[in-house]
Amino acid sequence: MQRALSTLPRVYVTRSMPPDGLDILRKSGQVQFETWDSDDPVPRAELLKKVKGVDALFCVLTEKIDAELLDAAGPNLRVVSTMSVGYDHLSLGELKKRGIRVGYTPDVLTDAVAELTVALLLCTSRRLVEATHEAKTGGWGTWRTLWLCGYELANSTVGIMGLGRIGVAIADRLKAFKVKKFIYTDVAPRPELANQIQAEYVSMDELAKQSDFLAVCCALTPDTQNICNKDLFSKMKKTSIFINTSRGGVVNQEDLYEALNAGEIAGAGLDVTVPEPLPTNHPLFTLKNCVILPHIASASFTTRNAMSSLAANNLLAGLRGEPMEKELKL
Ligand code: DGY
Fold first, then answer.
1. Can you give the residue ranges of the D-isomer specific 2-hydroxyacid dehydrogenase catalytic domain (predicted)?
2. Alpha-carbon dihedral sign for residues 59, 63, 64, 66
3. Same domain? 312 vs 184
4. Which one of 203, 233, 257, 290 is least enclosed by Cβ atoms within 10 Å?
5. 313 located within any domain
6. How confident is the model at residue 1 (pLDDT cuts 50, 70, 90)?
7. Is residue 327 one of the residues assigned to a domain?
């Protein structure tokens, strides 16, 4: 039997979400929902008002889900479903204390993120942004022997910081470029994943020293905050390329600027920064050897719709008191 709309659990959706997820909510007949129907984040004050009394929250990574917000929502809130694989915007301790279940969206974005990471790596190592700029602005005089030379993947060592599904997917794609060796570091060896790509477990020091290309794939946690700093960059080769598609907070950006500016490393490609957006007058934007993208690793139509579908299904399962397809263990 259909319940009257007004008696259905209430959901607040913090952004205009990709359509597939909203269709799932709509067709479920299980919830009523209100959306902040904009591409821009809902202002905090508005969010604090809107969450009052809701049963579930469907959010993205720009919303800080902390004690203040959970207090504003009140005791009805049973489920938080984030359309992201990262969850550093969620205060997990506060959610656990209140018995709120949390859904997130790993796996469905792995291919898109790996693909973009490879694109960013090539763009940085082969200096594509500089090259198109030169071609467009008259810098292209004649063919020159060492002009715009970069570094190639063939016979290189690729290092992965934080080996998970995404790191494996990146390595899988890079194999085709004739990489000589994959190495990785993590809190402990992860043989079941490493075996898939014949990657060798090394210390952080060795990762820095050996990598020709270093891809950061670890989650942002108190332990990984600023883990890519002066110390790491100083151990890297002058010819190495640093790539980050995880979270900006894992990198000390001042140290990265110094390393790039001093030629301590050859280049960096960043899809994530602190803050986001990175102010256009940030020193990193002045460097030719730094390619900065506006956090687009998962931005394909297919993937963003898959993420919103998974987030919607997680949310509905959580409200029904059933296991979610992807639930964070708190
Ligand atoms: C995530 O999901 O955490 C990515 O950073 C955005 O897709």
1. 11-327
2. negative
3. no
4. 203
5. yes
6. low
7. no
The per-residue pLDDT of the chain, averaged, comes to 97
Residue 179 CA to ligand 1 center (angstroms) comes to 27
Q: Which atom of ligand 1 is nearest to the CA of 84?
A: 2
Amino acid present at 20 = D
The ligand 1 site (C-beta within 6 Å) comprises: 61, 84-86, 109, 298
Model pLDDT, residue 6: 79
Pocket test for ligand 1, best of 65, 81, 84, 247 (most atoms within 8 A of CB): 84
> Is pLDDT at 4 greater than 80 in this prediction?
no
Task: Give residue-wise pLDDT tens across range 183-202.
Answer: 999 999 999 999 999 999 99
Residue 58 φ then ψ, to 5°:
-110, 110
Q: What is the CATH number of the domain that holds 12?
A: 3.40.50.720
Q: Has residue 3 got a pLDDT over 70?
A: no
**Domain encompassing residue 27:** 5-108+301-320
Nearest CA to ligand 1 atom 3: 86
Tally DSSP H helices, then E strands, for the chain. Answer: 12, 12
